[in-house]
Inverse folding.
C-alpha cells in the first residue's frame, strides 16, 4: 500500500493543546489533497499517515504537501504489515528492494526508527539486517557518511514504512490556529514576506492592496496637462 508519512516538530510541544493543533494540521492536509481522491488521513503517534490511492502521481502529492504549514518533513513510500512479538523482515526487505529499484546509486545507508519500543528488534538490528539484504541483492556498498541513497524505515505498532526520500516542509504552525489578520500589500517584497511569516505562525491572511501614492484631483490633472502643453 502506498502512503505518505508526515512529521511535525513544534506541534509536539503544545502540551494539552496538542490534539487541537494536530486536528488543524490534518484538516489542512485533507483540504490540500481533497481533489486528488485522498480520503484517509490518520493521526498516529507523533506522525500522520496519508493513504494514497492507486495511480496518483507522486509529484502531485509532493507539490501539495510542500505548501502545508505545520509539516516539518514527509516521505512517500509503502506500508508493510508487521508483528511486534515475531517480526518477519522478508516482506519489508522485498518492499525496500522495490523502492530503490528505480534509483541509480552506488552507495546507500539504512536509517531505522522504532515508534513502538515493544518491538523485539532494535533499530540497529533492523539497519544491519536490511543493509545486508540490499548488499546481497544489488551488490551496492554501504556508506554511512555520504551515501547516494538513504533508505528510511519507520516501525509502527502494526506496520513498517519504507521510503527512499525525505522532503522538507515549510514547518511552523497549521494555518487557522492563530486567528485572522489583514495584510497590506503594496507591490514591494517586504509585505509578502511579512504575510508569509504570519501565515507560518498559523494566521489566516486576508490580502488588501495598499498604495501610498497621493491622490490627484481631476482639476489638478488638467492644470498639469495645460502647463505641459505650453
Amino acid at each position: 500500500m502506498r502512503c505518505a508519512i508526515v512529521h511535525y516538530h513544534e506541534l509536539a510541544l503544545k502540551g494539552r493543546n496538542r490534539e487541537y493543533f494536530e486536528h488543524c494540521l490534518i484538516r489542512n492536509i485533507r483540504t490540500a489533497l481533497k481533489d486528488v481522491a485522498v480520503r484517509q488521513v490518520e493521526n498516529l503517534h507523533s506522525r500522520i499517515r496519508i493513504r494514497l490511492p492507486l495511480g496518483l502521481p507522486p509529484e502531485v502529492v509532493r507539490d501539495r504537501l510542500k505548501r502545508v504549514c505545520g509539516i516539518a518533513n514527509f516521505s512517500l513510500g509503502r506500508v508493510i504489515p508487521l508483528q511486534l512479538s515475531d517480526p518477519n523482515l522478508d516482506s519489508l526487505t522485498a518492499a525496500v528492494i522495490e523502492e530503490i529499484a528505480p534509483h541509480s546509486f552506488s552507495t546507500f545507508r539504512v536509517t531505522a526508527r522504532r515508534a513502538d519500543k515493544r518491538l523485539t528488534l532494535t533499530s540497529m538490528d533492523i539497519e544491519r539486517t536490511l543493509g545486508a539484504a540490499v548488499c546481497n541483492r544489488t551488490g551496492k556498498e554501504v556508506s554511512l557518511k555520504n551515501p547516494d541513497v538513504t533508505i528510511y524505515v519507520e516501525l509502527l505498532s502494526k506496520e513498517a514504512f519504507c521510503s527512499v526520500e525525505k522532503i522538507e516542509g515549510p514547518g511552523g504552525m497549521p494555518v487557522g490556529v492563530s486567528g485572522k489578520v489583514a495584510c497590506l500589500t503594496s507591490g514591494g517584497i517586504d509585505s509578502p514576506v511579512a504575510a508569509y511569516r504570519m501565515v507560518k505562525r498559523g494566521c489566516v491572511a486576508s490580502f488588501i492592496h495598499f498604495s501610498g501614492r497621493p491622490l490627484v484631483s481631476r482639476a489638478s490633472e488638467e492644470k498639469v496637462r495645460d502647463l505641459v502643453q505650453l
Summary: Helices lie at 18-32, 58-65, 90-100, 123-138, 190-200, 218-229. The chain has six helices and eleven strands. The chain has a mean pLDDT of 87. The chain has two domains: 2-168, 180-229.
